[in-house]
Each structure stands twice: as C-alpha cells, then as structure tokens.
Amino acid sequence: MRPISAPAPAARFRRMRRTPALRALTQQHRLGIGDLIWPLFVRDGTGLREPVPSMPGVDRLSIDLIVAAAEEAAQLGIPAICLFPYTDPALKTAGCEEAWNPDNLANRAIRAIKAAVPDVAVMTDVALDPYNAHGHDGLVRDGVILNDETIAALVRMSLVQAEAGADILGPSDMMDGRIGAMRAALEGAGHKDVAILSYAAKYASAFYGPFRDAVGATGALKGDKLTYQMHPGNSDEALRLVERDLREGADMVMVKPGMPYLDICRRVKDTFGAPTYAYQVSGEYAMIQAAAGHGWIDGDRAMMESLLGFKRAGCDGILTYFAPRAARLLAQG
Ligand code: PBG
Fold first, then answer.
1. Which of 92, 225, 256, 311 is catalytic?
2. How far apart are CA 125 and CA 130, in angstroms?
3. What is the DSSP string of 167-220?
4. Which domains does the chain have, with CATH numbers?
C-alpha cells in the first residue's frame, strides 16, 4: 500500500480533523470492550480483598469475590478473564505437584466461575512458577531449568485445568515444544474445543516486577529467567516462535510485554494473520497508575491511548489490568 494525496493546498489534512463527526468518520482503529481480557489474582479464603501495593487499584481476591468479578465482567461485556493464583508458600515444592492438583486454588476458581457465569471465557496460566519452590516457570535440577521434564508437568496441569472447565489455556512458560504436547494431550483426553493462547513471544522483562509481588513469587525466584524468556534485543526470533507455536496447534498467540514491543505485535500480525494478543503487563499498568497518582498525567486518557496503541499495532485484543475501567469508559461512549 502506498497512500497518496494531492499537493497542498488541495490536500489539507486538517479538513478531516475539523469536527468530532469528521474525526469519527476517519478514525482508522478502535478499541472495543470485546478486545479486553481481564487478568485477576486469586487467593484462598472468603470475603478477602487484599490490595497489591505495587499495582494500585488491583487486589488479590478470594474465590467468592473472583466470582463477583467475573459477574462484573459479564455485565460490562468483557469477554474473558485470566486467572493467576497466589499460592500458599507451604504448597510450593521442587516438584511443583500442586500445579496439577485438581483441587488447587486455580482449578477451584475455574469451577466456581464456570458454575456462576458460564458465558465469560476463563483463561488460565500454564506455568510452574506459582507452585515452584525455586520460583521458576520450569522444573529446576542443579540450577538448570529442565525443558522436557517441565513439559510433562505442564501437560498434567493443562489436563486438570481443561477438566475444571477452562476455555483458554495460556502457557506462559516458554519451554520448547509445549504447545504440541498440550494439544496432543487435550485431543487425546477429548478436550477438543479447549483453546490455547500461546505466550509465544515472551520477553525477559523488568516490567513483570509487580506481578511477581502479586503472586508472591518475588521472594521465591532465584536468579533470572533469561535461559527461557526472550532477550529484549531480538525480533526475528519472535516470528520463529510464533510460527512454531501455530504449527504445533496454538489457536492464538501473544506478545508480552506490550507497550515496549508494539513492533513485534505488528510483525506477528502482518506475517501470520493469526489472532494476536498483547499483554499490557503489571509494570506497564503500575507506571501509568503511578504517574496518574502523582497528577503527572491524565490516567484515563493515558490508559485509553495506551490500549488503542495495541489496536493500531495490529492486535486483536489486550490482556490488561485496566479492563473494567476501560470497559466502563467505552460503555459511556
Ligand atoms: C509467569 C507469568 C508472569 C506473568 C504472567 N505469567 C511473570 C514472569 O514470567 O515472571 C507476568 C504478567 C504481568 O507482569 O502482568 N508464568
């Protein structure tokens, strides 16, 4: 495509910016409530709402309040929520066995949500970090993150999540070959309609800091995740990973974090045309909230502008902690 226009003054770009009506007609990209996936932190107990200090406005919720949040999502028209468990440190082991306990916190939350609000799609996190004494997404032996042994664990975890009623599995672990293994296991167990949204291009990022506080992984994590998450300097590798995951049976793919990686979103969408999502991660949320909290930026406008940027970059949807607030603003029109 090569946009052309007449020379000035025949072309005056300000003509189409003159009034709200003309601006509405010429607006190319739009954010809709249907683009939003709302990540939620679940904890044990009842009636508990526990603020996450590094994510102002975000709380860890007990299952009853997670169900209420899912009801709120349904009322607002948010199509999907994504669950992250805050696991009791006493349940974290080197073998990560709690990950495939059918009655672990995440699976109990899935069942409660699907019973109360079946129309809201429930997405899960498939990675071992909430259950791992080492804080890593994979099993660790002698300081090394084990790929193939981790995949076997992720497959068990996927099957219990599918059994609990998850609509979308979100492997966020970055092990090689997990999509194919999960897909084969799901097909084999009769879970033919459970979707996989692969965290295909996930970078080793400082922007995950507040999330690790929220799920209680900060203290547990030894070292960094550089041997499995991508280096921020790489771009072509993202395309190779997305292609690999699509070929292994992913239905949707994700780029993560979001705002510093919009170029990757655009390349992924243009190259594959697959359903493409960005995760506006905890640190991105925290930055906007912190600046707005100081009165340095207009929080609502910065939020909406950041989310629209994902649409402009080619994303079909966005995982964002702003989901309910953005949905409310969008509903006002
Ligand atoms: C871990 C996981 C992380 C996030 C989602 N799943 C953190 C990490 O990889 O250390 C980050 C989300 C966010 O920062 O909002 N499996």
1. 256
2. 10
3. SEEEE-S--TTHHHHHHHHHHHTT-TT-EEEEEEEEB--GGGHHHHHHTT-TTT
4. 31-331 (3.20.20.70)
Q: Which pTM was predicted?
A: 0.97
Ligand 1 atom closest to Cα of 282?
15
Q: Which of 137, 175, 229, 322 to mutate to test the pocket of ligand 1 (most atoms within 8 A of CB)?
A: 137
Coil vs helix vs strand at 78: coil
| Pocket residues: Cβ below 6 A from ligand 1 | 125, 127, 129, 137, 172, 208, 211-212, 225, 281-282
The helix/strand/coil state of 287 is helix
What is the per-residue pLDDT across 1-60, written as a single tens digit (0 to 9) for each? 887 778 888 889 999 999 999 999 999 999 999 999 999 999 999 999 999 999 999 999
Give the residue from 288, 319, 232 showing the smallest Cα distance to 56: 288
Å from CA of 124 to ligand 1 middle: 12
Q: Quick one: which atom of ligand 1 is closest to the CA of 173? A: 16
Query: How does DSSP classify residue 95?
Result: S
Candidates 205, 267, 206; CA nearest to 235 is 267
Whether 256 is catalytic: yes
